[in-house]
Design brief:
The protein is an alpha+beta fold. The protein has a single domain, classed as RelE-like (YaeB-like fold, 2-Layer Sandwich). The protein contains 2 helices and 5 strands; from the N terminus they run E-H-H-E-E-E-E. It has helices spanning 6-20, 24-36, and strands at residues 2-4, 49-50, 59-64, 67-73, 78-85. A 5-stranded mixed sheet has the order 1-5-4-3-2. A hairpin with a 2-residue loop joins strand 3 (59-64) and strand 4. The protein is globular.
């Protein structure tokens, strides 16, 4: 099962609000596509690449547009931890809850 953390949900809201200033339509489209992207992880959990900054094989990322969807694999679930811009280097404290 794919579980979205509170931090990742807040990231989605911020992304939506940022894009909405220019285009409410595009903001909805981008957020819908970001939320749909991790569905592939149910069948192929290891498809994303390892997040090099963190060095943990269980923390991986999917790329969509200019965003990095950071997720963690555990024994039974896939947890979406955060969504960050591709230009940002990720640090453990960026992971929120």
């Amino acid at each position: 099962m794919v579980i979205w953390s509170d931090c990742a949900r807040a990231d989605l809201r911020r992304i939506f609000e940022y894009i909405e200033h220019d285009s409410p339509h595009y903001a909805r489209k981008v957020v819908q596509e970001i939320t749909a992207k991790p569905d592939i992880l149910i069948e192929y959990p290891g498809i994303g690449r390892m997040v090099l900054e963190l060095g943990d094989e269980n923390v991986r990322e999917l790329l969509i547009y200019s965003w990095r969807i950071i997720y963690e694999l555990n024994e039974k679930d896939i947890i979406i931890l955060t969504i960050v811009h591709q230009r940002k280097n990720l640090k453990p404290e960026d992971m929120g809850d």
